[in-house]
TrEMBL record:
SUPFAM superfamilies: FAD/NAD(P)-binding domain, Succinate dehydrogenase/fumarate reductase flavoprotein C-terminal domain, Succinate dehydrogenase/fumarate reductase flavoprotein, catalytic domain. One of its GO terms (molecular function) is succinate dehydrogenase (quinone) activity. Residues 205-246 form the Fumarate reductase/succinate dehydrogenase flavoprotein-like C-terminal domain. Keywords: Flavoprotein, Oxidoreductase. This is Uncharacterized protein. GO terms for biological process: mitochondrial electron transport, succinate to ubiquinone. GO terms for cellular component: mitochondrion. Residues 7-70, 77-150 form the FAD-dependent oxidoreductase 2 FAD-binding domain. It comes from the Eukaryota. The keyword 4Fe-4S does not apply. It comes from Kingdonia uniflora. Pfam families: FAD_binding_2, Succ_DH_flav_C.
């Protein structure tokens, strides 16, 4: 077993076309971990919310359906005006701003939307990465419950803090860096920075997000996943023609 400092990956929700998470949640942390050879698991465990505004990702709360709205596309014109104003005012406003929809007159366009990603680095309960098969201090399982995010932050976060204080002391010396430390990374970044292909990063990203949304979303089969792997490989190859220069 090899123990290494824990690295928070921020998740990989933004690989999907529709997601509620912050824009930095692109899986970049997971990629860093993979590059240094550490194992990860449970990436197939992705939580979806059934009703996110199409193309935006903002959630239409379960409260809408609880008050009597119809799902599929969310239709709320059957609700009384006072119910919307008194109990669901923010969602009505959000829908108007992001979807351009008056909920009393039009249905809200929705899409199953990624809300949380359970997979990540294998760790022990101290938050240290471990190289061992099928062992992880996970509190989520295959689907996150609402309070478990708080559990992650408060309980496990405290445990990680105590472990760092136990094994590291203020002012202690760090291992010296190698003479060529970071040079490969800088060269890789410069290659991207000065690339002048024909495909903007936004187009490649959107293509990737649509592939993941279509082939690895709520309903998956062996066939859709295999097709998705082939399409993602092509999307990765297209990155050789990326354009970052005007």
């Amino acid at each position: 077993m090899q123990l290494l400092p824990f690295l928070a990956t921020r998740g990989y929700d933004r690989m999907y076309f529709s997601a509620t998470s912050a824009h930095p949640c692109t899986g970049v942390g997971n990629a860093m971990v993979s590059r240094v050879g550490l194992p990860q698991q449970d990436h197939e465990f992705v939580q979806f919310h059934p009703t996110g505004i199409y193309g935006i990702g903002c959630l239409i709360t379960e409260g809408f359906r609880g008050e009597g709205a119809f799902s599929g596309i969310v239709k709320v014109s059957n609700l009384w005006n006072d119910v919307l104003k008194e109990r669901l005012p923010r969602i009505s406003e959000t829908t108007a701003i992001f979807a351009g929809v008056d909920v009393m007159k039009e249905p809200i366009p929705v899409l199953p939307t990624v809300h949380y990603s359970m997979g990540g680095i294998l760790t022990n309960f101290h938050g240290e990465a471990v190289i061992v098969k099928d062992a992880c201090a996970s509190v989520h399982g295959a689907n996150k419950l609402g309070a478990n995010s708080l559990l992650d932050l408060v309980i496990l976060g405290r445990a990680y803090e105590n472990r760092v204080a136990e094994i590291h002391k203020p002012g202690e010396k760090q291992k010296p860096l190698e003479n060529d430390a970071g040079e490969k990374t800088i060269a890789w970044l410069n290659k991207l920075r000065y690339s002048n292909g024909s495909l903007p990063t936004s187009k490649i990203r959107l293509n990737m997000q649509r592939i993941i949304q279509n082939n690895a979303a709520v309903f998956r089969t062996q066939e859709t996943l295999e097709e998705g792997c082939q399409l993602i490989d092509k999307a990765w190859e297209s990155f050789n023609d990326v354009k970052l220069q005007d």
